[in-house]
């Protein structure tokens, strides 16, 4: 079992891109501003998911943490 955190894709001309060079630069860059805040919040959410897996079991935690809220954000 694993807990995954997605980071999205960089934008090129306002559209998400799969260009390997742009993706590599995006993935390896230090997040700043709103991206950093989002990453910190997502990391806390992932840690909560791990604690729920240990306390409640994988199936219950998975059904709770894999739901999506508005605009694709994790449900609270």
Helix content: 40-55%
Mean pLDDT, all residues: 87
Number of helices: 3
| CA(first)-CA(last) distance | 22 Å
The portion of residues forming beta strands comes to: 5-15%
Overall morphology: elongated
Described by strand count, sense and barrel closure, the largest sheet is: 2 strands, antiparallel
Spatial extent as radius of gyration? 15 Å
Q: How many beta strands in the DSSP annotation?
A: 2
If you had to describe this structure to a student in words, what would you say it looks like?
There is one protein chain. 54% of the residues lie in helices and 5% in strands. The protein is mainly alpha-helical and 76 residues long. Strands 1-2 form a two-stranded antiparallel sheet. α2 (33-56) runs antiparallel to α3 (58-65). The longest helix is centred in the middle third of the chain and has 24 residues, at 33-56.
Would you kindly provide a brief summary of this structure?
The protein is mostly helical and 76 residues long. The chain has helices spanning 20-28, 33-56, 58-65, and strands spanning 11-12, 15-16.
């Amino acid at each position: 079992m694993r807990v995954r955190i997605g980071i999205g894709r960089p934008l090129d001309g306002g559209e998400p891109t799969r260009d390997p060079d742009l993706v590599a630069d995006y993935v390896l860059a230090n997040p700043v501003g709103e991206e950093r805040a989002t990453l910190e919040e997502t990391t806390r959410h992932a840690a909560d998911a791990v604690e729920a897996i240990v306390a409640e079991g994988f199936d219950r935690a998975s059904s709770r943490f894999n739901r999506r809220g508005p605009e694709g954000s994790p449900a609270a």
